């Protein structure tokens, strides 16, 4: 039995060395990177039994992702697919005024077709915590349904559900994100959200303490964590900030 099961896409990140530009690069550093698998790895390092759940293409790139994640000590429970690609992104790092540049290549990925009936729902229901993020339902209409169904299944099994809002403007508009993600809220026990997302996507006003209280009260979460970047976070639990 896992302490925590996470579900989502893990991509391959390709980065040129130093501050080199993508257009001039002759070589890239390759790493697996994904919000949900990062949480599984972090939980494992804190002593938890963690599992990452996903759908992955049965290709060299898909196997590369799974192999790297396993090297961090977490379990991987994946559906191997003969269709769909492995998502990648290219990260160009530099100081000001250039700044960081990210180019995504995640169309037609295997994970975008993942359905709840394919996945190990029993593992989720046997876990203490199920975690996913707002990135996952942003990737496809199929994943919107899958995310909803997995949250419902977790709740049915008595598993605590934790959700990182994690709005990404390159994936969808604030209106689309608000419409989709608020439909998931009834199945969520613990919400993590950036203060800026609470304001710009959900339309809430106030300081982080007020945001946490308003979110928790309106949507009946057990716990709300409002992050403030370098200034840390504010937590709300059972009506207490």
Automatic annotation (TrEMBL):
Which parts of the sequence belong to the Carbohydrate kinase PfkB domain?
A: 1-234
Under the heading CDD domains, the entry gives: KdgK
Q: Which SUPFAM superfamilies match?
A: Ribokinase-like
Residue intervals passing through the bilayer: none
Q: Which GO terms describe its molecular function?
A: kinase activity
Q: What's in the keyword line of the UniProt record?
A: Kinase, Transferase
InterPro entries recorded? PfkB_Carbo_kinase, PfkB_dom, Ribokinase-like
Task: Give the UniProt family note.
Answer: Belongs to the carbohydrate kinase PfkB family.
Which named protein is this? PfkB family carbohydrate kinase
Q: Which organism is it from?
A: Natrinema soli
């Amino acid at each position: 039995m896992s302490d925590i099961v996470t579900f989502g896409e893990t991509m391959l990140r390709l980065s040129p060395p130093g501050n080199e530009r993508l257009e001039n690069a002759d070589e890239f550093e390759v790493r697996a990177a994904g919000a949900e698998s990062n949480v599984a790895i972090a939980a494992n390092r804190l002593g938890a039994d963690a599992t990452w759940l996903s759908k992955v293409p049965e290709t060299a790139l898909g196997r590369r992702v799974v192999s790297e994640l396993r090297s961090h000590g977490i379990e991987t429970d994946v559906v191997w697919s003969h269709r769909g690609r492995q998502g990648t992104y290219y990260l160009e790092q530099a100081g000001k005024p250039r700044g960081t540049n990210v180019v995504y290549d995640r169309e037609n990925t295997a994970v975008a077709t993942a359905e709840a009936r394919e996945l190990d729902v029993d593992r989720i229901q046997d876990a203490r915590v199920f975690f996913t993020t707002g990135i996952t339902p942003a990737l496809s209409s199929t994943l919107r349904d899958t995310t909803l169904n997995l949250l419902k299944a977790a709740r049915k099994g008595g598993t605590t559900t934790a959700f990182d809002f994690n709005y990404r403007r390159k994936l969808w508009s604030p209106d689309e994100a608000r419409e989709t993600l608020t439909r998931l809220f009834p199945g969520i026990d613990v919400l993590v959200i950036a203060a800026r997302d609470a304001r710009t996507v959900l339309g809430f006003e106030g300081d982080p303490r007020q945001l946490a209280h308003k979110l928790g009260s309106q949507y009946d979460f057990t716990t709300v964590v409002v992050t403030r970047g370098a200034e840390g976070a504010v937590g709300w639990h059972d009506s207490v900030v």
